Amino acid sequence: MSQHFSRFGQYEEALKAAKESQVRSSKDPAVQVYSEYTLAMVYHQHQRNKDAMEILESLIHGNANVAEPGIQAKVWTMMAGVYDSLGFSDKADVAYKVALDLREKLGGKSGLAVVYYNYAELCARRDDDAQALEFFTRAYNIEKESGGFSDVAQSACQIGILHAKRKKRETAQEFIEEAMTAARSAAVPIVMAYVLANKASVHEYLGDEAKHEQALLEARDFLKIHKFDAILGPVLGNLGFLYLEQRKRDEARPLLEQAYQLSKLEDNKYRMGYWLMGLGKLERELGNHELAISLLQKSISYLREVRAHIATMQALKELALTLADVGRGEESVRMLATWADEYVLEHDEAMSNRLRNVQRILEKERKDREEEIYRLRNVELSTAMLAIETANAELKELAAEKDEFMAIAAHDLRNPLADMRGMLLTILNHYGDLGMEDCFAICKDLLTTTTRMSATVHSFLEVSRTDRRASETMSGTLDMVHMAHRAMERFESRADQKKIALSIASQQQVWGMADASIVDAVMDNLISNAIKYSPKNSEVVLDVSADENYAFSRVIDQGPGIKIEERNKLFTKYAKLSNKPTAGEDSLGLGLYLAKRMAERTDGTIYLEEHPDCGACFTLRVKVKPTNVLETANPG
Predict the structure, then answer these.
(1) Least buried of 144, 266, 383, 583, by fewest C-beta within 10 Å?
(2) Quick one: how far is CA 190 from the chain centroid?
(3) What is the pLDDT of residue 470?
């Protein structure tokens, strides 16, 4: 409410609302800070800058740390503006730097635009037009993005003034027209008053005296309705200067005096000095030299305090002319020489400060770059360490797995080797006593033992092979029906021994995408298991099919199936189920584990599928080959 009243020039209502907010928020420190800030803002907007400064300094040195960073940035921004208005240029510089640092860390564009704009105003009063244009433009660009009409209006008219100073007529007029359009869209009286006043400044710098006067009168008439003394003062003062140039001294005097009184209430030293310079010039032209000297000396004092160098030089010129008029030319020369020396010192100091600021910014950028490099190095180091730790963990797991396999191999191979040694020794030691049938029986036992050893070695080699080939699998187009026929052919002899029928069920060609050698190995495992656990005179069916995404090879037997309570053991190492091979075949419990592991190498999988009227149904699923990009089949 306070800010709303303040925008429409209702000072008493704004102040009342701000003080009421201050009382109500006394129990919450964070809210209290915001209420204090709002009160200071009302004081600042209505020229009570010393009151605003007292509140803001109390916040900065007191409990502002309890506020969120956004409020702290607002406090420092307003503090810079208050110091600027009171003529404390050095303090204003420091406050603006703090505000800029806070805003840049926060990253909010709208708040940063406010600081840019206020700092640009300070640069403009110091006649640093290049710096002012840079910061006004920064603020303008942010405000254009956000679409705030009030802010765009104020920045656009300031940019228009700076271009008018450079005599860039078209650009200046373009910006002031944009400012007027934005002010009308904003429909905020104080913004319209501000733009009307600055429109007059644009015409002044462009040298269009008639439009300059017309704009000032338009602004004055608007301010008769909407009371904004901070804008009325400059309008009246500029109109007074214009009449002074037109030799309308009687009309100029009351305007300059009223402007001076308004700026005195505001305690704005720049404006006080500027209007006193106009009054001093007026008195010199009227022949009131002593009064003119007094007014001009006071004017120079104010203008030098705020480092308004061009305005100071103008006032010094008027004072020198006045002193010359009364025969004090030597004094005027000494005065100008003294000022010139002091100006050089101030200029050197200002340049040194600017260089220090540049150095500070460069140092900050250097530190930021170093911190970013350090951060990136840490990220890279952390990533590398994580990769090493992962690799170490995998190596430890593989080493443990290999140790386990070697222990099992040693155990499973030691006994068969001992048996084989014993059988061979029997043949060697009793060769003359053994009959043909005895030798045949021993050789048959040797064959059985070596076959069992070969199966054991093959299983461990498969584990090693699939580990090594993890990144070497070659995916190609496979005729899955052809692969099924070839697998069946490899097991015909074994199936015949158990009187088991092998058949393939497929209604059409099925094309899959996988590694042919892996599919062969997996199918061998599944068919071998089906034969191993199927009873005599049964059937093993290999069903090949596909859908839009996958090709399926199902091995279906008529054995006992897999008990529900044992299904969680499937595909694990050394799984021992209650079902036994129907012809006493050996089983290490590694077959399904290896098969699933190999299938995953080729982006496939194996799973137990529910199938009616059968024992077990194990399915190999691989990716299907899209028909629209079908390549020449690779049967393996």
Answers:
(1) 383
(2) 37
(3) 47
